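Attaching the record inline, Q. Sequence:
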Amino acid sequence: MPLDIAYSIEVEDFIDPDKAYDLYWSGVIKDNHAFVCPGTDCLAQVTCANLYVESQNMKVVPHFRIYGKHGRDCEIFNKKTVSFIQEPLSTQQKERKPVSSATVDKFILARPDSYYDLDSKNKGINLAEKQKRVRAKKVIRSAELKKTGFIGNIYSVRMIVSRYIRYSKDGSIAHRFINIKGKDVSFKSFLKLINKQKIADLPDYALVYHGWAYIDKYELGYRVKFLNSLKNDNGEDFITSFFIYDDLIDKYEIKNLVISRIKKIVVLPRPKAYVFIYGKPQVFKSKKNEKYYANFKVNNLDYIDVNVLPPF
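Structure, as predicted:
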């Protein structure tokens, strides 16, 4: 049974592998072994594999792996569905589904202010002390989770790519959907390769576009230019690009991850990367050279993912 969530001893809450990855790169989580099984009355140890790996590909998707001994009443041990549930994702979906059978993930366009917060009462307590009281704390958190019916939404393109890879590997991708602004879209159609399409033929709503791109240093940050260009109705190429500005990087909680990847790329003889961006391309004409461009606007670094290698 895939382990969708685990209890983090450091955070003292249930989280999914994608949030664990975010919290590690933002400096909140320090130890990839500081997790336990989410099952009832179970303290089996869990590790978050690939937590420390900043380059994403098919072999390094973050995921939980159990390596400890389960409790006798643990649902995982007894091959039963863990009873944590997700909140309804639309007005049409009234019933709540078990995590293991959920087919819709919800993409939230802005993280809540509390996303990176820790309980202030626990900040001064070391990991060893937290481990001693994990059973009592876990029982309380478990009851809260079952009452509110809420876990792990998607908050970034990086999470979308990670889940796309995970669902492709476990064979469930055809039945997986992503909900954004109340609209359910299949995972397969939500990611679109930039492949010389005409702008007019693209959907009128934002998607995750992806493809190879060059990245170079720019006066106020970095310029990302896709190798394949989108086209106008006459089949002529638009230079297809976007900018990553330094002030956005400075404000981003996971800046270490972004900077680490970009720095690896810009020093290469051919500074090429595999890039994902959530948005809708807009056409504009440059006043400087009167050329037409298809640009994506980036006002949130959660909307992009930059990879040294293609993750597929």
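The chain has two domains: 6-170, 194-307. The first strand starts at residue 6 and ends at 8.

More tomorrow.
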